Amino acid sequence: MPSASAVGSAPVAGDLPTADLLTHGQAALEWIASYLDHPERVSVLSQVVPGEIREMLPASPPERGEPLGDILRDFEARIVPGITHWNHPGFFGYFATSSSVPGIIGELLVSALDVKAMLWRTSPAATELEQVTTDWLRQMLGLPGGWFGFLNDTASISSMLALAAAREAKPELDIRARGMAGRSDLPRLRVYTSRHAHSSIDKAALALGIGLDNVVHVEVDEAFRMRSDALVAAIADDNARGYLPLACVATVGTTSTTSIDPVPAIAEICRRESIWLHVDGAYGGVAAICPEMREILAGVEYADSLVVNPHKWLFTPFDCSAFFTTQPGVLERAFSLVHEYLVTPERESVVDFMNYGVQLGRRFRALKLWMVIRGFGTTGLAGRIRAHCELAREFADWVRADPEWEVVAPVPFSLVCFRYAPPGVHEEAINEMNVRILANVNATGEVFLSHTKLDGRYVLRVAVGNIRTEKRHVRRAWELLKAASRG
Ligand code: PLP
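The joint structure predicted for all components is written out below.
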């Protein structure tokens, strides 16, 4: 219940006083600092049961404003227990991510400015900072000049834009104006990607009306990389049937194992066949900022588009996905639609980012990315990524040294795929053991791991990527895994 004095004095117009911002903002900052300094006080994986959080919350909204102090107390008591702590050094699931001090400050300022970065004039600094930071990122990745970059919410949306551009790159299809439904003149449009590509590629095909059946999942080799000979065969097959090969999505750092598709060979095939090549480097791409890892983006200079996610492995709070294309004009043709109320006198001389995607209002994501890049510097960022890769290699060495465990995929980045596989035990029992080990380790609340399946084998994953993860956290994960395998 709100206190009587707070309710009685609640204003009916205007914002709360900025004195509240100073008092409670300070309290929130102190909470954040202590949260970051003492992650051990929370369980990485939330231990609540379904419905538990909703039960702790009133079913209807308060009629009158409540004191911010009460709301912050409820945040700690009723919301935090239901948080799975992605920003925790013991988070090794999916792809580990992190927010960071400069990124948090950036988000704070963005929420105060509340900019919609759609037209240049709706915030010139937002547009120009987005141009500058994406160009910094381009240079950090070692990409040549001439790439046009901008920031989206997620790689899923960036990849959907890439496929929309691929469609527009064939203007004779006239899909922008006429759509695809009910047209007997349109061939089936085909998209090629590997069996290990992220589901967002299928979802993009689904959203664009290309259809799931037209996503060709090309076979992979023993290291889970797309087989370029299988790609050639799939395209030839489709050509023979009168289908139209539209786009190919290669992945640098696939979701299950972080395998790297052979982009140079794929780029050559796409060039020959006039197919749009999009490279999904959502997680792995940023590792190219380490000079010794630049090779992972070999061949990308021949692609039409690329996505990398600073919100995955560049210490930038979610969301921030960087999309690059060498063909911004095609993307603009696909999406530009300027109603009278959006016409500006300067439109010919500036970039209006609303013309390159679906959204009109766009978040000012560049500020936090700018603060992260400046706050750590390029060597600081590369050093942290390098340290994560070293921790992963060390973890893989511990696994390999134990005869009861095995590493089941190469470790090109900071992810290790492995499993408990004591000799003499049959496959089905091994799978069941690993399911149980994962559940028991995650129930400790000290670390969180996720899994995948490779050729029918249930596989555990340790993804190192949180900015505060140290060797002791990785070591602890290994101890817990070994203890779970014994118990
Ligand atoms: N692509 C790859 C290779 C991924 O691993 C992921 C997520 O893990 C995505 C795309 C989707 O990223 P987002 O959540 O930004 O849409």
